[in-house]
Every structure is written in structure tokens, then in C-alpha cells.
Design brief:
Rossmann fold; eight-stranded mixed sheet
């Protein structure tokens, strides 16, 4: 009760400034996240989210805070995905990646820097999230996702986001999400181009996301990736993830969005026939 009175007394309208949130956590021996949940439960809004409010209500912000999202990969796509989900206010991020930062990552991976060369990508991601939004709980897993160990990684997830660069592993991820009835937002990039699709429980996008491509890596092995392509595609993935978590808008289910930044064209293709249900 004292915490609620403290927050209500120090609110500026319905906003709780950061010093008040941090002060409440220290005064009442709470984590920043615990203080944030109480703020949102009171119908108040941490001031950091005030530019969300015309798009995301306080109730929706609470739903995002109580969500758990697993990001597989924290490189080109994954770095932007992690950054944006943390700023959005998703309360628990699980980040999976076995790799360290290398010099060739510096042109496009937002979490990379010369100072981080040789550092585990998930450790850098965790430090970044704690810096930009201490209310977010982040669980870094420095391991490669596979069909063997993936089930434990995905347990309790409200959504999964694909930031991988391996076709084989992507297909394993999509299949496991289908088995576990977890929504997964797929994204892939190469050069000026990208694609995004969403698989909801009861659906299967695996036959469609790479067609007859037989190589273990995607076209990025030939085309490379400039700085802007992962930023665009990752942002589309985060928008999809936000809609999935909130149950808002129309997701990219049963359709694929193809991105051509060279000609600035966005093409939507329906996925037909209807997607297979789990168990079929």
C-alpha cells in the first residue's frame, strides 16, 4: 500500500518519471521491473513510454511487460530486434546465440563495435538491454539453437523471433514452434532484399519460406548485407511481434512480405494452399 501511495503521490498526471521509478525500487527493495509492473497495474505509465501512448494503451503496455519473447540470433537481424523489443517494453527477453563479434559484423550489426570484438554476442546484448531499459529481464544463452536443445529454450515463450542465418536451423525452429504452438516471426535478408512472415499456432510456413533453395545458408552468403537491410526487416519483425503479443491488427499469417529496397518495392504473396494444422 505504501508503494502505491508513493507512486500516486509522485506521479506527474499519469506519468511516472524515471527518477521516481528508480527511487521507488530502491526505497521498497524492489527490482526496476517489479516497480514497473506496479506502476502499470495502477493505470499509470512510466514516462519512458509516453510516446507509445497514442498507439499502445496502458493496459497493452502491461501486457507487453508480462510477455516473454525468445530471439534466436543476436547478429544482424537479432541485434535490432533485441534493441527495439527492449525499448518497446517487452518484459522478458531470452537471447540465444553461440557466436562472438568479429570484424566483418561491424558494417551492419547494431550491437557490434571495435570494443566488443571477441565478446559473446549474447553478453553484449544483455549489457545493452540493461543499459537502455533496466525494467526488462534478459536471459542470455550462449549456445546454438537446434532441434535437440531448442524445446527448453522456447519454454514459456509468448512469441519467438527468427534472427538466424542458417536455412536448416530456421526450418528446425519453425517446426519446433509449430509443435509447441508458439507464434514465430520469420525474417531473412540478403543484399537489398528481405522477407517476413508470421506463423501462428496451427499453421506451418516451412514449405514456403525458402522454396527449393538447397544451400545451408541463404542468399546473404553471396549478396552480403549492408547496414540498412537488417534494420528494415528487423523492424518489420518487431511490428509483427508486437501485434502478435497484443492481438492487434492483421499479422502476416498465410502471406509473405518480400522487401526490395533497391527498387523500393514491397510485394505481398499469399501462401496457398491453406497452411497445415498441427497434427495433420
Amino acid at each position: 500500500m505504501e508503494l502505491r501511495v508513493f507512486l500516486q503521490t509522485h506521479a506527474l498526471g499519469d506519468l511516472i518519471p524515471w527518477p521516481v521509478q528508480a527511487g521507488a525500487a530502491e526505497r521498497y527493495d524492489l527490482t526496476i521491473g517489479e516497480a514497473e509492473e506496479t506502476i502499470l497495474q495502477l493505470g499509470l505509465l512510466p514516462a519512458r513510454y509516453q510516446r507509445n501512448r497514442q498507439t499502445i494503451t496502458v493496459g497493452m503496455q502491461l501486457r507487453l511487460f508480462r510477455s516473454r519473447v525468445v530471439v534466436i540470433g543476436s547478429g544482424g537481424l537479432g541485434g535490432y530486434i533485441i534493441e527495439e523489443l527492449a525499448r518497446l517494453g517487452v518484459g522478458h527477453l531470452v537471447v540465444v546465440d553461440p557466436d562472438i563479434f568479429e570484424e566483418h559484423n561491424l558494417n551492419r550489426q547494431i550491437l557490434s563495435s571495435p570494443a566488443h570484438l571477441g565478446a559473446p554476442k549474447v553478453a553484449v546484448a544483455a549489457a545493452r538491454v540493461r543499459e537502455i531499459n533496466p525494467a526488462v529481464t534478459i536471459t542470455p544463452i550462449q549456445d546454438a539453437f537446434s532441434a535437440t536443445n531448442g524445446r527448453k529454450m522456447l519454454e514459456g515463450a509468448d512469441a519467438v523471433v527468427d534472427g538466424l542465418d542458417s536455412i536448416t536451423t530456421r526450418l528446425e525452429l519453425v517446426e519446433l514452434c509449430r509443435e509447441m504452438a508458439i507464434p514465430v516471426v520469420h525474417g531473412a535478408i540478403g543484399g537489398w532484399y528481405g522477407q517476413v512472415a508470421t506463423q501462428l499456432p496451427g499453421e506451418d510456413i516451412s514449405p514456403y519460406i525458402f522454396g527449393r533453395w538447397a544451400e545451408p545458408k541463404g542468399v546473404e552468403t553471396r549478396l552480403g548485407n549492408p547496414s540498412f537491410t537488417p534494420a528494415v526487416v528487423a523492424s518489420l519483425q518487431v511490428a509483427e511481434t508486437c501485434k502478435v503479443l497484443l492481438g492487434e491488427g492483421e499479422s502476416l499469417r498465410q502471406r509473405m512480405l518480400f522487401v526490395n529496397l533497391l527498387d523500393m518495392e514491397f510485394e505481398e504473396v499469399r501462401i496457398e494452399p491453406p497452411l497445415a494444422a498441427v497434427g495433420e
